Amino acid sequence: MNCREFDPRLHAFVDGELDAGPMADAEAHVSTCPGCHGRADGERRLRQLLRRQPRETAPAEFRARILALARRERTRKQVRAWLGTPALAAAVLLLAFMLIARSLSTGGHESEIVASLVDKHLAYAQLEGPAEFASTERPAVAAWFRQRTGLRVPVPDLSPAGIQLVGARIAEADQHRVAYLLYEKGHVLMSVFMVPEVGRRAALAGRSMSFRGQEYLAQERQGLRTVSWRDGQTLFSLVSTLDYEALLECAEQLRAERAREARL
Ligand SMILES: [Zn+2]
Fold it and tell me: Between 20 and 30 A from 139 (CA), which of 52, 181, 207, 213?
């Protein structure tokens, strides 16, 4: 098994859901490939975080300060948060599991898919390198998704709004494969999630918002704002602390990019 063959089996591998043959192949690959080994480890740690139960919740102010501190540290590339050397990393890790566990207790049903996307945003915001594929080049990121998933993912240019592309990930939420774009405005992370073939069952909750003739659903969760919409069978969701005006502007750009791609 090589990296490309391992990739679509990553989640099943971590969850122990592969048949014996493919499982042995995957194990053999992971034992010799540091890249895939790292990704499998990351997924395992994320699952551990998601499974733990909350003891108490962090006051909002403390949370904001820790998150800001963590991001500053991260840009200095000193904290290996998941390996957990300094005290800060431990605090961030604890905080991450408190936040995630708290949201889990409010429900993880398919109709709550936006909740699990918010969890992803929070979890990945703690990582030193939240992007699995780090690139500021839109065509390179689009090509990476095409190669890895066969998906055409619109990668809008948000730089006129001061929002820069950081990179991309492939994630999973409620058993859906999720294309995940990361952008940054200053030190504020914005996540763009694209969930293909989400189906009709995933009812979206939230407040209706109209923006330039399009309808969106807005929700606040865990101090974050989300703007979501469906486009055919695909669900899009933006998650950030950015204000709604900025998020809706980004949503509009994403729609435009998707329409432009469809014409190609
Ligand atoms: Zn590999």
Answer: 213
CA 146 to ligand 1 center in whole angstroms: 18
- pLDDT, tens digit, 9 for 90 and up, residues 118-145: 888 888 877 777 788 899 999 999 999 9
pLDDT at 60 (0 to 100):
52
Ligand 1 center to residue 133 CA distance, Å?
14
Question: If you measure from the C-alpha of residue 248 to the centroid of ligand 1, how many angstroms do you get, rounded to a whole number?
Answer: 38
169 alpha carbon – ligand 1 mean position (Å): 16
CATH number at 114 reads 3.30.200.100
Do 157 and 236 fall within a single domain? Answer: yes
Last residue of some domain: 105, 123, 140?
A: 105
Cα 75 from chain centroid (whole Å): 19
253 Cβ contact partners less than 8 Å away, ≥ 6 residues apart: 156, 157, 158, 161
13: CA distance to ligand 1 center in Å?
A: 13
3-state SS assignment for residue 252: helix
pLDDT tens per residue, range 55-80: 344 445 455 555 665 565 555 444 34
> What is the extent of the structural domain holding 5?
1-51
Whether residues 58 and 32 fall in one domain: no
CA of 12 to the centre of ligand 1 (A): 15
Q: Are residues 181 and 231 in the same domain?
A: yes
In terms of phi and psi (left: phi > 0; alpha: psi -120 to 50; beta: otherwise), the region of 163 is beta
Q: Which amino acid appears at position 244 of this protein?
A: Y
Q: What is the value of pTM for the model shown?
A: 0.60
81 CA → ligand 1 middle, Å: 23
- C-alpha 31 – ligand 1 centre gap (Å): 9
